[in-house]
Amino acid sequence: MKQTILIVDDEKSIVTLLKFNIEQAGFQTEVAFDGLAAIEKVKQQAFDLIVLDLMLPKMDGMEVCEYLRQNKIDTPILMLTAKDDESDKIAGLELGADDYLTKPFSPKEVIARINAILRRTRIGPAAHHRFIRIGDLTIFPERYEAEMHDRVLTFTRKEFELLHYLANHRGKVLSRDQLLSAVWNYDYAGDTRIVDVHVSHLREKIEPDTKRPMYLKTVRGLGYKMEGPS
């Protein structure tokens, strides 16, 4: 069965261009021309990925992204925008977007980004393990959840992918650039702040004391590592 992509943009020429090229790449497509219509589409049908423009009528792309994540809809999102502002990029990623592409873009780059996101958002090499246990923390890769002291912890998709990657490399110091490349597929200098933000979010969920982390340690000048409590 073909994977289905939802294209959300109010410019019909861009929708036509994206629809043609995405379908040529072997996907099915649905379209929406404003944010409210996009949300209604997502309520009615499951999509494999959403190509979401930032500037939309009725409800902008940031609001759509925030609504989906707050309602536990973790469909991967490729956000499009005419703005080339780092603060917009960081804001979109913090809200749960999986990648970010600035207009103008080439159709080939859009397809490459879509394929990269879909590869990353599939469960990784450790999926055959039913769980990963580190101290009192138990991670369930297939459920995108973790438990601690019989309490279920929930995460955004990116938070979980970062946690899962760190757990799979337990005891190894990983630089911010390594984590950015592995989890966000970004190699651009200056974007590593998003890693720190997500590490902070993870600590709030898994650490008994965020000021004295037991699981997710900072290695000054190098990066982060996951280890069990001593």
Overview of the structural elements:
The protein has 230 residues and is α/β, with parallel strands linked by helices. The protein is built from eight helices and eleven strands. The protein folds into two domains: 118 residues, Response regulator (Rossmann fold), CATH 3.40.50; 102 residues, Arc Repressor Mutant, subunit A (Orthogonal Bundle). 40% of the residues lie in helices and 20% in strands. A hairpin with a 2-residue loop joins β8 and β9. α6 crosses α8. It starts with a strand and ends with a strand. About 3% of the residues have low confidence.
Write the layout of secondary structure elements.
Elements: E1 4-8, H1 12-24, E2 28-32, H2 35-44, E3 49-53, H3 61-70, E4 77-81, H4 86-95, E5 99-102, H5 107-121, E6 132-134, E7 137-140, E8 145-148, E9 151-154, H6 157-168, H7 176-184, H8 193-206, E10 216-219, E11 223-226
Helix pairs in contact: 1-5, 2-3, 6-7, 6-8
Give a quick summary of the entry.
The protein is α/β, with parallel strands linked by helices.
Task: Provide the descriptors you would attach to this structure in a database record.
alpha/beta; four-stranded antiparallel β-sheet; Rossmann fold; 230 residues; 2 domains; Arc Repressor Mutant, subunit A; single chain
Number of helices: 8
- Specify the CATH architecture of the largest domain: 3-Layer(aba) Sandwich
Helix content: 40-55%
How does the helix and strand content classify structurally?
A: alpha/beta
Please count the beta strands (DSSP E, at least 2 residues each): 11
